[in-house]
Specification:
Elements: E1 2-6, H1 12-19, E2 26-31, H2 35-42, E3 49-50, H3 53-58, E4 64-67, H4 74-83, E5 87-90, H5 98-111, E6 115-117, H6 125-135, H7 171-175
Parallel strand pairs: 1-2, 1-4, 2-3, 4-5, 5-6
Helix pairs in contact: 4-5
InterPro entries: Gfo/Idh/MocA-like_OxRdtase_N, Gfo/Idh/MocA_oxidrdct_glycsds, NAD(P)-bd_dom_sf
Organism: Brachybacterium massiliense
GO molecular function, one term: oxidoreductase activity
């Protein structure tokens, strides 16, 4: 799978750290509205090209778009990628409205491409360990799950907490999907 990553902000680090561990997944291009962030994401990664968003979406080498943009841009980027015949994996939330989510799913089905979305970093060890435990029957058939999160405030730990306090961002869109 050849990945083009759109959005090189804070969450991109977790994905970038995982690519080297996945032999069937190759990051081939990155794009960000801030070209310096895209260049920093590509730095030290052989063969990873820095492109504009438009160039990346239209790039023939890319078969899957990893959409790490802000939540308000998820549906727009996903729909553009789908129209270009790309599979899409989007960071959470899948969309900010039910209507946008339905549009993405309808477009993907019509185009014959796959779409997926986090509510967790699917490439992380926690999710991969859980997947193995389920596949190997270690825990039986899951029927329910529950999680709790307690946080003293994003400004105490997050490298860019301003995002949590602007329209189109915030704890509900960022942490709610968990």
């Amino acid at each position: 799978m050849k990945i083009g990553m759109i959005g090189c902000g804070v969450i991109s680090r977790q994905y970038l750290d995982s690519f080297d561990k996945l032999p069937d997944v190759q990051l081939v291009a990155v794009a960000d509205l801030d070209p310096a962030r895209a260049a920093a994401a590509a730095e030290g990664r052989e063969g990873v090209r820095v492109l504009t968003v438009d160039e990346l979406i239209e790039d023939a080498e890319v078969d899957t778009i990893l959409n790490l943009t802000i939540p308000a841009a998820h549906a727009e980027v996903d729909l553009r990628a789908i129209a270009a015949g790309k599979n899409v994996y989007s960071e959470k939330p899948f969309a900010v409205t039910t209507q946008e989510g339905a549009e993405v799913l309808t477009a993907a089905q019509a185009a014959g491409v796959l779409v997926g979305s986090a509510p967790d970093t699917v490439l992380g060890t926690g999710t991969q360990t859980a997947r193995v435990a389920i596949d190997e029957g270690v825990i039986g058939m899951p029927t329910a799950a529950m999680a709790t999160m307690v946080c003293p405030g994003h400004e105490r730990w997050h490298p860019q907490p301003d995002f949590y306090y602007v329209p189109g961002g915030g704890p509900l869109l960022d942490m709610g999907p968990y």
